[in-house]
Design goal:
The complex is a heterodimer of chains A (about 260) and B (about 525).
Chain A lengths: L1 H21 L5 H6 L5 H14 L1 H4 L15 H4 L15 E3 L4 E3 L1 H10 L12 H13 L26 H16 L27 H11 L10 H12 L11 H10 L1
Antiparallel strand pairs in A: 1-2
Helix pairs in contact in A: 3-7, 6-7, 8-10, 9-10
Chain B lengths: L1 H8 L12 H25 L4 H18 L6 E2 L2 H11 L8 H23 L11 H23 L10 H10 L1 H4 L2 H20 L4 H19 L2 H4 L21 H6 L4 H25 L6 H14 L9 E2 L1 H9 L6 H21 L4 H15 L2 H7 L3 H17 L1 H20 L3 E7 L2 E10 L4 H10 L5 E4 L3 E4 L1 H16 L4 E5 L1 H9 L6 E5 L6 H5 L3
Parallel strand pairs in B: 4-5, 4-6, 5-7, 7-8
Antiparallel strand pairs in B: 1-2, 3-4
Classes of the chains: A mainly alpha (about 260), B alpha/beta (about 525).
């Protein structure tokens, strides 16, 4: 009888632990209402705050007027808009810097290029918080398998070169009402060129990448209404403008190299 | 009692009455502000906080401590306090995360409350029992910890934790090629070298010289190599506000968890007050300032308690800034008040420039400060007295291996026990007379010092004893019992115990129940007249 009791207790314990493991994680709204959070969830919430309001919560390292959520739409939860549920894809090799990238380095480079700021150290609280938020969003994804709607859609070859002149027409018609004729953004809408926007080392500065994002998501709420050619044209038009220089290039070093060669 | 407390609790503003001194004070405040900015930023780093909190500490803790205090002591961010905050809160939350900041604020409120308790209990004078060797040992140990922390940033290591310092040194040495970033090492070395050279030409401002050299070399590095290559760590933009009001988070969960912080709060309150009071006591001896020690304790307590409400962490008096302040001729708290105002102005002006301050340059200045705190002269100074040397070395070594909090406890325990040993030592003068032995006792007769007396009594078992209590400072119950017991034993052998006492001691001994077998004789009419009238 005693043995049976022990079995029952063990079974109960097992069931409890299984039930615990199957518990879905709390939503951000639930977390925001908790009076006290442990280290992980407080970092998740902090990461969420940084993504949605980078100007306030990550102001140390941000150099322009953008917030993370301007590109990672819906705080990084929208498919085809650079969703952040990608923890399982890292570490991986990237051609951009020619080395193995952990999620930390990827986040730090976002600050350097897209936010046109300073590269935070590896153990900066902001980086750790965003990493926690990314792993929170990635819950349930399979390691090494691309999540659905990762990044932006790759546009097919339309057979025509991107035409910035046509892009200007489309921009003035479709985009200027929110992003401004000078591309400097109005209110919460981010600037798309100029010194307050992402710099020329950012991924968005590649015509293909920006075109995919524009086609899938712009105008906001009416994604996929432009033709792919129109998206490419607008993207080319954006890239005609002045924006902060690529921090990866040091003109001075090039000069020294030229002198010595 | 309450009216006296209220009198201490209100700021006196005594400096109002001396307008001629204001100009000197303001200049001293400006220099103090220039010195405290790098310290605030680096000490915030030691405490695991964002740099702006260190600057708020430099503004608000200095302000409150100076408004309520009575001396020209410069309070504000303090090394040992910052290190202790870091070690206390790090196990509870990730470095610099919002929860971490909440816990630091909670800890600082506790520190303030404990210090106010010290004030209410008039416990400020217990710091007299801590020997200067212990304070030097703590300071040297803190310097060692600073050097080890500064190495992280100078060598460009990402944070990795090791249990003991030599493990870290071993890892660095064995894997230097992969771990050490040449760029930040270069900047750090430039800073240290500039500080070393600058000390020769300007002993007052060499830290600022070092910092500027580090900044310029950082700019040079950034000019040649792009940031993705160097991965240099910069200070970054600081979101500074002029009035950073903040309500510390208080709820059941926080309070439950923060019980683990209480020992650290006690240690921080203790070490903060110890340093501040050592400084204040020095000022009191060296200058003619009208200083009230209890009021200083109160000022520190209130400053640390209010600090979290202004987004800053706890602080204490600073040795180096007070010294500079004194050299510049400051004599009133106005210099501290001025310094906090100037920090605000300077930071607003310098903010954009400081953004690209490399952390390696900051760490370089921190390295210099740390090395300065380990004074070789101190070791030589204390080597003369063995007990002092033991306190110094034991404190230093226990800080090296077990951290600052343990070191503080070791220092306190050791200095109190040395003090105890000293006080329980009796000075016994024996004189053989034809009628027996005369023993003169100098010191306090209490339970701890009786054993020494017992030995001496047993050595002269078969003689009449006359004990002269003229120079005895204190007699407690166990001493009285001892005399009664000895007298009984001697009476068995037909010997006599005589105590030479004055009128007050006679009354005291009788009320404490001295047995009738002990003969009490007044000093005036005793048979050994020659003894008591002798000058000793």
């Amino acid at each position: 009888m005693a043995k049976l009791n022990i079995f029952v207790v063990l079974l109960l314990l097992l069931q409890m632990s299984v039930a615990h493991a199957q518990q879905t994680q709390p939503t951000i709204e639930q977390l925001l209402q908790e009076p006290f959070l442990d280290d992980y969830y407080s970092n998740v919430v902090h990461g969420y705050e940084i993504i949605t309001d980078s100007q306030k919560h990550a102001s140390r390292y941000v150099g322009n007027a953008l917030n993370c959520t301007n590109c990672h739409l819906q705080a990084g939860t929208q498919k085809d808009a650079l969703p952040l549920n990608v923890a399982g894809m890292y570490p991986k090799w990237r051609a951009k810097n020619g080395k193995r990238n952990g999620i930390g380095l990827r986040i730090r480079e976002c600050f350097l290029y897209s936010m046109d700021g300073i590269m935070p150290p590896e153990d900066a609280p902001e980086v750790l918080a965003i990493a926690a938020y990314i792993s929170y969003l990635s819950q349930g994804q399979v390691m090494g398998v691309e999540p659905e709607g990762r990044g932006v859609p790759t546009l097919e070859d339309t057979g025509y070169d991107p035409n910035p002149a046509n892009g200007r027409l489309v921009y003035m018609e479709q985009c200027a009402s929110c992003h401004g004729e000078q591309g400097d953004g109005i209110g919460d809408v981010p600037p798309v060129w100029g010194l307050d926007s992402y710099n020329s080392g950012a991924g968005m500065n590649r015509i293909q990448e920006a075109a995919g994002f524009i086609w899938a998501n712009m105008p906001l709420g009416n994604g996929r209404t432009l033709t792919q050619q129109q998206a490419l044209d607008v993207s080319a038009y954006l890239n005609l403008h002045l924006r902060p220089a690529d921090p990866g290039q040091s003109k001075f070093l090039k000069l020294v190299e030229d002198i010595f060669n | 009692m309450i009216s006296q407390l209220l009198k201490e609790a209100t700021p006196s503003f005594a400096w109002r009455r001396n307008p001629g001194q204001w100009r000197t004070e303001l200049v001293a405040g400006l220099i103090g502000a220039a010195l405290v900015i790098p310290q605030g930023i680096t000490f915030a780093y030691l405490a695991g906080m964002q740099p702006e909190y260190g600057l708020y500490c430099a503004i608000f803790v200095t302000l409150f401590a100076s408004v309520l205090g009575t001396s020209s002591m410069m309070s504000g961010p303090n090394t040992a306090v910052a290190i202790l905050i870091g070690t206390a809160v790090l196990p509870l939350a990730g470095r610099g995360s919002p929860v971490y900041v909440d816990f630091v604020f909670l800890l600082c409120m506790m520190v303030g409350l404990i210090q106010l308790l010290f004030w209410l209990l008039r416990a400020g004078r217990i710091f007299q029992y801590i020997s200067p060797a212990a304070i030097s040992g703590i300071s040297a140990g803190a310097g060692f910890l600073i050097v080890m922390t500064a190495l992280d940033s100078i060598l460009g290591l990402s944070s990795f934790s090791t249990t003991f310092f030599y493990e870290k040194l071993y890892v660095i040495a064995s894997d230097a090629m992969d771990l050490v970033s040449p760029y930040s090492l270069g900047i750090g070395l430039c800073t240290i070298a500039a500080g070393h050279l600058g000390r020769r030409y300007s002993p007052r401002y060499f830290l600022l010289i070092a910092l500027c050299a580090g900044y310029v070399s950082g700019l040079l590095v950034a000019f040649i190599w792009p940031q993705p290559v160097t991965e240099l760590e910069y200070l970054g933009r600081m979101p500074l506000q002029w009035l950073p009001l903040n309500v510390p988070t208080l709820n059941m969960e926080y309070l439950m968890i923060s019980t683990t912080l209480i020992p650290y709060a006690v240690a921080i309150a203790f070490i903060g007050l110890a340093q501040s009071l050592v400084i204040v006591r020095e000022l009191k001896m060296e200058t003619d300032q009208d200083i009230d020690l209890d009021k200083e304790v109160y000022a520190q307590g209130v400053a640390n308690f209010l600090a979290p409400f202004f987004s800053s962490f706890a602080g204490a008096g600073s040795f180096n800034r007070t010294k500079v302040n004194q050299r510049l001729g400051a004599r009133t708290p106005l210099s501290g008040i001025a310094a906090s105002g100037f920090v605000l102005v300077l930071i607003t002006l310098l903010g954009p420039i400081l953004t690209y301050m490399p952390m390696a340059a900051m760490a370089g200045t921190l390295f210099i400060v740390g090395v300065d705190m380990i004074k070789w002269l101190d070791i030589k100074h204390y080597a003369q007295v063995r007990s002092e040397l033991i306190i110094y070395l034991a404190t230093f070594v226990s800080i090296m291996f077990f951290g600052l909090a343990t070191g503080v406890v070791a220092a306190v325990v050791l200095s109190v026990s040395v003090f105890m040993l000293r006080i329980s030592q009796l000075e016994l003068n024996l004189e053989e007379k034809p009628s027996g032995t005369v023993m003169r006792i100098k010191g306090a007769l209490f339970f701890a010092s009786i054993s020494q007396l017992t030995e001496e009594f047993h050595r002269h078992v078969d003689e009449n004893m006359t004990v002269d209590l003229q120079y005895t400072t204190h007699i407690d119950q166990s001493a009285v019992d001892f005399f009664s017991r000895e007298a009984a034993q001697m009476a068995v052998r037909g010997k006599q115990l005589v105590l030479l006492v004055n009128a007050r001691q006679r009354q005291l001994l009788n009320t404490m129940g001295l047995s009738g077998q002990v003969t009490l004789e007044s000093l005036q009419d005793n048979i050994y007249n020659g003894v008591s009238n002798e000058k000793v």
